[in-house]
Write a structure and sequence with these properties.
The chain has 192 residues and is mainly beta. The chain has helices at residues 44-51, 91-96, 176-179; strands at 8-11, 32-35, 67-73, 79-88, 108-123, 131-136, 142-148, 161-173, 187-189.
C-alpha cells in the first residue's frame, strides 16, 4: 500500500468553473504555507481502518499527487469509513478535480485543501461517475454532504452545482456516505 504523509502547499480559492471542483470561493489565492501539522492523531481504531486500505489509487493523471488516508469519525467517536485520498492542493489540481478519472475505487477519494474556510461551489463538469461531495470546516467537522449523480448522456455536468462552506472538500464515490452512515457533524481525520 502506498501511504505518504502529505506536505502540502495550501493555496486559497480560485474563482473559476471547476470539474468536480470549486467554482466560487471567499479564500485568497495568493498565500501558500508548507505544513506537516495533523488535524488530529489517529486512534487505534482509525489506524486499523487505514492499515486495511489498499486501493489502486491514485492512478493516471493523479499518480504523482501526494496522498493521505482520510478517516471519518462519527459524533460517537466510532470510525465510519476510511479511504486513501489524492490531495488537490493547488489551483490547477483543484480545477482538474476528478474530471480526468474514468472511475475511482471505493477506497479512494480526493481531498481539496484551502488555506481558510470559505463559501465554495463544486460542479460535476466532465465527470464519468457520481460523487459524494463533503464540505468540512477548519477542524474537519462535516458541514454539508451532497450526493451528486454523474452527468446525463448529453450533459457536461457544468450546470450541476453543489455549494457549501468549508476549508476542506472531500470527494468519494457516490453513496459512500450513505453506505458508511456518514452525516453532518461527523469529522474528517487526516494528516496534512
Amino acid at each position: 500500500m502506498r501511504r505518504r504523509h502529505l506536505i502540502a502547499l495550501l493555496a486559497g480559492g480560485l474563482p473559476a468553473a471547476l470539474a468536480g471542483c470549486q467554482t466560487d470561493s471567499t479564500a485568497d489565492d495568493a498565500a501558500t504555507n508548507e505544513t506537516t501539522v495533523g488535524i488530529d492523531a489517529f486512534t487505534d481504531e482509525e489506524r486499523a481502518a487505514v492499515d486495511r486500505l489498499d486501493p489502486a489509487w491514485p492512478t493516471g493523471p493523479y499518480a504523482s499527487y501526494e496522498t493521505t488516508p482520510v478517516v471519518v469519525r462519527g459524533a460517537d467517536g466510532g470510525v465510519r469509513g476510511a479511504v486513501v485520498a489524492a490531495v488537490a492542493d493547488t489551483p490547477d489540481k483543484r480545477r482538474l478535480g476528478l474530471s480526468a478519472a474514468e472511475s475511482m475505487p471505493a477506497a479512494g477519494g480526493m481531498l481539496f485543501t484551502y488555506e481558510s474556510v470559505g463559501d465554495r461551489t463544486y460542479v460535476m463538469r466532465d465527470m464519468s461517475f457520481g460523487l459524494d461531495i463533503i464540505y468540512a470546516d477548519a477542524d474537519g467537522t462535516i458541514t454539508t454532504i451532497h450526493n451528486a449523480p454523474a452527468p446525463g448522456p448529453d450533459e457536461n455536468g457544468a450546470s450541476q452545482t453543489y455549494p457549501g462552506r468549508g476549508q476542506y472538500v472531500f470527494e468519494v464515490t457516490r453513496n459512500w456516505t450513505t453506505d458508511n452512515n456518514v452525516s453532518v457533524g461527523d469529522r474528517l481525520v487526516f494528516t496534512r
